[in-house]
Design goal:
With 652 residues, this protein is mainly α. The chain has 28 helices and five strands. The chain has a five-stranded mixed β-sheet with strand order 2-1-3-5-4, with helices on one face.
Amino acid sequence: MIRAATARRRDLFLVALLALLAGLLLTFQVYRYGCGDQLTQIPLVKRFIDGGYLPQDFFTNRVAEFSPHEGYAALLVWPARIIGLPAVYLLGTLLSNTTTALITGLAARDLFGTGAGLLAIPLLLSGTVIRLGINSAVITGGSLIPQQLAMPFCLLAIWAAVRGCPLFCAGAAVIGAVIHPLAGLGVGAIGLAAMGGRLVVFERDHVRGWLGRMGAAAVLIGIMTVIWLVQFPPPGDRISTDRFIAIMAGFRLPHHHLPSVFPRRDYVDAAWIVLAGGAAWWYIRFTSQGVGALLAAPRSRETGRGKQRPYHIHSRPDRLQDGQGLTIALIAALVGGLCLIGYVFVELIPVRLVVTAQTFRFLFVLNWLVMLLVGGALAAYLESRERLDRYVVIGLLLAAVSPALLGIFHALIAIQRWMARRIRHTSTISAALTAVMAVLSVMHYTTDHMTRRAYMLVAGFALVFIFLERCPTLRRTRAAGIAYGLVIAFALVGLLWPENALGVVGEILFDNPVITLADWDTPEAEVSHWAHDRTPPDAVFLTPPEFGLFRLIAERAIVVDYKAFLFYDVGMVEWQQRLFDCYGKPDTNGFAAAAELDAAYYHITDAKIAALRDPYSVTYAVLYLDTVTDYPVLFTTGTFQVVDVGPGSSAK
């Protein structure tokens, strides 16, 4: 018993250590402060810290009136006053990534054994995720946003649902909803619905106890929902449903809402990932019958139970229970159903509530479950009685760098396992499949090499931990040599193929991270710093439509920018009107519209600027260097020019 407890603590330490390594790599690979969605969230946090921040800025004023991310902003205020906002974002990103990796490892360990926990963590770095709806299923990242900060609580809620803990599921979901209402409440509802199905099928003998806990959990979710709906109503009058959907889903966010505009490649990749998860689930449930069952002694015909065996790094006290397997299947089905609802009631029969919910965002739940299942299958393969099957794990890890390779290889391995029951000597097939996947994976390193390198490093260390624990004490030296040889092999593939053979070790950890706004070294940053130093604090700038970084670095108001969208009726109408007034009405939507508006700004005329000056109190304009203007030029870079368009100046 003491040895078993010590082994469990050691295994927990290994999972935590690997999670920390993964968190560091996930954070510092491509860390960026002041980009992406942060352009719309940092102004809100700064306004919470300082009520006088950018009083002339349209977006900052409107987002302070209402934002679904108020809880997220309020959470960052008090630490930002102590250590500064850049440090808070950096530490928050690191904490979120590390915690997410740790929860992933612990959940896989809980379901399938410690080996599965160690092997599930590298999948977070593989970059192989479902991307229907632009980053809808991204679980980690190098730029802290509300959904990423809420992610650990959302994953805890799903884990609790699989384990059959309704109150824990609801509690974690409510905390996540404080940070990101849609993600937290949605995950809570999915978890409770899946447990409801489990209650009907497997828990009929314990209905009374389950109903009490399920009822209390539903009340928690309901209270949080009422708080958001009643205590934080959007200001102003509601616009028509058609106009709301046209602005949000049709014009600004079609890449989040409209399945018809999602790239076809994303659908193909999603299918491969789902295939991999399905093959892993099938193998665990119907072939290995769970990692714990695979390790157990042969079952007795009378009792159906095997003898107890000492705790081992890959073992789990009991098999994956039928209730847990059903819960996983129900959660996956519910997520798929939400995506179907998101298609029918956004594109075919538009419904305002469904548009607001952004149902495709919940694909991150399915993506995470696939990681757990694949980790469980890999651990089961490591415990196979056939030695060659253990090396298939290396091929499976290599295949994870691509959705297509991941899906194809898992499907082929499942077929091979099915054939093994009917055909002898299938080890040659396993060896051939592993070799093919190794070659294809190496060829895939021509793209996104930074992520692949980090993934291979963590995967290599996971195998080190596993192989060291599997070997007796007298064979530790040889086992260590083999394990570290695997790490070197993984690192060589990830680091030296096919480019940047020299100096790439440092690139694993750092790719010129942007820790503070001062670290930005671009023409946009140059002109922003000049505006901060040389213009009055109450200045209002007309800028290119995708220049939200100017607001943060220059700390000057801008008329409008494309990224800074407002998620309530009156705000989005005013945002769109300002956009059309400044840059014209585009013929396209989404990212194409942003590019079209930017192209139109190249040719903006002095007459157009003069027409905008009084309605929007414009005092300066940041124009492209090639834009023809007779207004006084105050500053130029290789890309931009700043002109004075205030009341005291005029075109020559």
